[in-house]
Design a protein that fits this description.
Elements: H1 14-52, H2 54-58, H3 66-95, H4 98-116, H5 122-125, H6 128-145, H7 147-156, H8 164-192, H9 195-202, H10 204-221, H11 228-236, H12 243-250, H13 252-281, H14 288-316, H15 318-341, H16 351-369, H17 372-378, H18 385-402, H19 404-415, H20 417-436
Helix pairs in contact: 1-3, 1-4, 1-7, 1-8, 1-10, 1-13, 3-4, 3-6, 3-18, 4-6, 4-7, 4-10, 7-8, 7-18, 8-14, 8-17, 13-14, 13-16, 13-18, 13-19, 13-20, 14-15, 14-16, 15-16, 15-20, 19-20
Length: 444
Amino acid sequence: MLQTIDPAGNTADPSQAAPSAPPSARRILAASFVGTAIEFFDFYIYATATALVIGPVFFPAGAPGVQQLSAFATFAIAFIARPVGAALFGHFGDRVGRKATLVASLLIMGISTVLIGCLPTYASVGWWAPAALCILRCGQGIGFGGEWGGAALLAVENAPPGRRAWYGIFPQLGAPVGFVLANLGFLALSFGLTPESFQAWGWRLPFLASAALVGVGLYVRLKLTETPAFKAALSQARPERVPFATMLTQHGHAVLVGTFAMVAVYAVFYLSTVFALGYGTGTLGYSRPTFLLFECIAVCFMALGTVVSGAAADRFGRRPVLLSGMAVTFLLGFLMGPMLGHAAGTGTGTWPPVLGFLCLSLLTMGWVFGPMGAVLPELFPTRVRYTGASVTYNLAGILGASGAPYIAQQLAAYGGIGFVGFYLAGAAILSFLAVLAMPETAGR
């Protein structure tokens, strides 16, 4: 059960604790938001680069589409590594604390991202280039695996009664902000550089710029205080010896329903961003700046959906909000073909349905993503919450996101964009059933 305890009750000097409690809560929410925004920025610049440049830079030329498929394969590596990072950082987060663990995850993610920007190309060193890329992509995944769960816990474990879903949207808002920063960076490069300069060196700049952002994140996170719920759990008993084992043996049902509930969330996002960017600039014939601008506009709707759904989840419960979102996601699968398919081969004159589909998709994604900041932590007790929420969130990434751009690329080549829509509809059905099997966690 989540506990919200006055931090003054855990402080040796009550005269100092009372005035410092409100700013401490604000700092924690700010750190939750800023840290995830930076982590998502790092993750999304790779996602964007995957659709635009990773294939030609790091892989040999081959049959049409081979470089793109190879790039999407490296994209999947981080999702496979994320549960490893979730288990690793979850172990220390549940035993040592949230603060130190979040600082370490940010450092690993940031260093891996900056080094990607320094890698030589395939033309320079051959297969050593994609091999090093895969190693660093794995580092990104391990760092990211420990990030989200801890950031969500910082928010919800400091929330007052009845406000956990609202507090839980702060780490969720890091996703659209990081996405916008990443896309605006690539958009600026697209306007400021020739295509040849962008492919030769310009794509590296967002990766190198991550170093400055990580410095900001570290500054904020080093000022964190530990959450009241974690301090209370430590005061009652020693931490679990192996939180991961306890999670599997005692909370397996929570892991399963939480994982499958997140599958559609991941699928709708990465189909509407990474896959759509490659499809829009390739099959639909849009320029890179135009489609990046479309996605920046659409992700604002994701932020709107996240904020509104957080408030709705506190008022109406988690399950009604999630079930309604999964139903709309199912319908999106059948809208994808009509809204995107008819635009193929017609140039850029049919942009309203393309932009409309992106906005509707990301609005829906925000609606189902927002409550997850509270839902996944609420499925687990405090003593294994970091491990449980992190592993669940990142296992869903393997199922819903790691192969989504690759599978969608293959489906589009085989049967057209409508087949990609059927894939999205199937993911929505799976997540709808998982939410039905999930207990209502509001008020627990």
